[in-house]
Design a protein that fits this description.
The chain is an alpha/beta fold. Helices cover 38% and strands 21% of the residues. An 8-stranded parallel sheet has the order 1-8-7-6-5-4-3-2. A 3-stranded antiparallel sheet has the order 9-10-11, with helices on one face. The chain starts with 30 loop residues before the first strand and ends with a helix. Bound molecules: 3-methyl-2-oxobutanoic acid (KIV) and zinc ion.
Length: 560
């Protein structure tokens, strides 16, 4: 690496004698505010048009968001029109508050009041930048200078609010000291306290103080220290709701939000899948589902996450990454053999334990809670025997006996090595069919009959009579036993095919549409002690094992 790093100025953490946040826990959902339609939208290559914004807005409402920043109506005619359509078109449910952003500048504040006319519940969100860097580089002013900008805006907003409030609007205020995390904490407290006083916030009519990491520039623990310090020093803390607005420049937006909540914040501004300027805003889905998987109700509904993702991709023309937490295409799958086996065991354990608790290794959340499937294990050359068996079970209904799984896993692995890439589930089924179900030569059962009777002691006696073909030779066999398998084995005694001993057998039903079939797995052993597996399926539960035996014999004869 070159010495370029030397030109960067490291973040200076504030000094804390005593911090309490590391011992806290998140036990309830914060107040959520979506900033998708403002911060997210402004960062798109093609900002959303009216139809797209409306569709997005309705999805946010369906998810359960009660505070939604709809835009920056003083910034452009399009933004203004969209705000008007939401209000005039009756799109805003009564329990949803729209939020509008405006810079702390008089003419923009005036225009914003025009834009929100007639809305029922509004948060008017004003901001100006306060950080050391912005003061020095952009505004060439001191703390007093930025404080005055904020206080003048607060005074004007309070004055212009009177008519709207008189007309019945439920109007609340939000102030953001933009670039908060780069502001000296005592200065941030001083500016925010001055705004609280100017806007005349009270514990009954609180102002939202939104503390953004406009550009994330420090580790989340340092940010949490800032929040705890800020809250402890703010004289009118009871008149404020402390909100966070994390961006994600260091990739720590989620941790910043979570630690900020531990430090006392009560509200989070975020976007779906983390859309937003540069590396994005913090991802509301990850935050909410992180809470969910800790047993905390996030009060947001992501039970149809694929539909939300599709809407997001359609409206924003952005792509959700394959490994994006909870929603990415690959997050509910496993390639590694040991992971596949453990997942398999986890599902079985849950079935047996019946506790209702989620205890599946490698899957932190039940995919069905998100309307997703456990995308059965994906198979590539890293996969093990359990993966192929899992797919056969969960996708196709074949519950392979344990003893057979290594053999079938090997068959699949030979294929993945040969093709050098992932193989789809359908191909795994084809391999199963080709290797077991289609092992019908050289020995075939041409026709057969069973006769069964039960003696006085209740013992069952079965007689099997059948015609078999071996290549061009057709021959008859007959035998009796205590069941169909026993009778068949006795029938082929003395034939060339009689060099196997019967080891084990498993049978179960599979449903193919409305059709129910029996599948039988047979394990035979030859004179050298080598095991041979075969599988038979039939509508007739007596016939399935016979086909399975022939499948095993044919595979052995064919050197499989
Ligand atoms: O990131 C930011 O600081 C903002 C403010 C306008 C809240 O988006
Ligand atoms: Zn932002």
């Amino acid at each position: 690496m070159n010495a370029g790093y030397a030109k960067y100025i490291p973040f200076v953490p504030i000094h804390m004698d005593h911090r309490t946040w590391p011992d806290k826990q998140i036990t309830k959902a914060p107040i959520w505010c979506s900033v998708d339609l403002r911060d997210g939208n402004q960062a798109l290559i093609d900002p959303m048009n009216l139809q797209e914004k409306l569709e997005y807005f309705h999805t946010l409402v369906d998810i359960g968001l009660k505070e939604i920043e709809i835009g920056f109506p003083s910034a452009s005619e399009t933004e203004y029109e969209i705000c008007r359509e939401l209000i005039d078109g009756g799109h805003i449910p009564d329990d949803v508050t729209i939020q509008v952003l405006v810079q702390a500048r008089p003419h923009l504040i005036q225009k914003t009041f025009e834009a929100i006319r007639g809305a029922k519940h509004v948060i008017l969100h004003f901001y100006n930048s306060t950080s050391t860097l912005q003061r020095k580089v952009v505004f060439q002013t001191d703390v007093e200078g930025v404080k005055k900008i904020a206080v003048d805006a607060a005074n004007l907003i309070r004055e212009l609010s009177q008519d709207a409030i008189a007309e019945g609007m439920d109007l609340r205020y939000e102030y953001s000291p933009e670039s908060f995390m780069g502001t000296e904490m005592d200065a941030a407290v001083e500016i925010c306290q001055a705004v609280i006083e100017a806007i005349q916030a009270t514990p009954e009519k609180k102002i939202i103080l939104n503390l953004p990491t406009t550009v994330e520039n420090c580790m989340p623990n340092y940010f949490a220290d800032e929040i705890e310090y800020f809250i402890s020093k703010l004289p009118s803390r009871e008149s404020a709701i402390i909100s966070l607005h994390p961006h994600n420049d260091r990739g720590c937006g989620v941790a910043t939000a979570e630690m900020g909540l531990l430090a006392g914040a009560e509200r989070i501004e975020a976007t779906l899948f983390g859309n937003g300027e540069r590396t994005g805003n913090v991802d509301i889905v990850t935050l909410a589902l992180n809470m969910y998987t800790q047993g905390v109700d996030p009060e947001l509904d992501f039970s149809h996450i694929n539909a939300i993702r599709d809407m997001y991709e359609r409206c924003t023309k952005m792509k959700v990454g394959e490994r994006q937490p909870y929603v990415g295409e690959l997050v509910f799958t496993a390639f590694s053999g040991s992971h596949q086996d453990a997942i398999n065991k986890g599902f079985n354990y849950m079935e047996q334990s019946g506790t209702g608790k989620w205890e599946v290794p490698y899957l932190p959340i039940d995919p069905t809670d998100l309307g997703r499937e456990y995308e059965p294990v994906r198979i590539n050359s890293q996969s093990g025997k359990g993966g192929a068996a899992f797919i056969m079970h969960h996708k196709f209904g074949y519950d392979l006996p344990k003893a057979m799984q290594p053999e079938f896993g090997h068959i699949v692995q030979v294929e993945t090595d040969a093709v050098g890439k992932e193989i789809p589930a359908q191909r795994i089924y084809e391999l199963f069919k080709e290797n077991y179900l289609d092992a019908t030569t050289p020995y075939q059962l041409v026709r057969h009959s069973f006769a069964e009777f039960t003696d006085d002691e209740g013992h069952s006696h079965v007689t099997f009579a059948g015609t078999l073909r071996h290549q061009d030779t057709v021959f008859q066999v007959q035998g009796s036993g205590n069941g169909p398998i026993d009778a068949f084995f006795n029938a082929i005694h003395g034939q060339k095919m009689d060099r196997f001993t019967f080891v084990d057998y498993k049978e179960h039903a599979i449903t193919d549409g409305s059709d129910s079939m029996a599948v039988a797995y047979i394990q035979l052993r030859d004179a050298e002690g080598k095991d041979h597996f075969g599988v038979g399926i039939s509508h007739n539960i007596n016939l399935a094992p016979l086909k399975g035996i022939l499948s095993a014999i044919n595979r052995a004869v064919n050197g499989k």
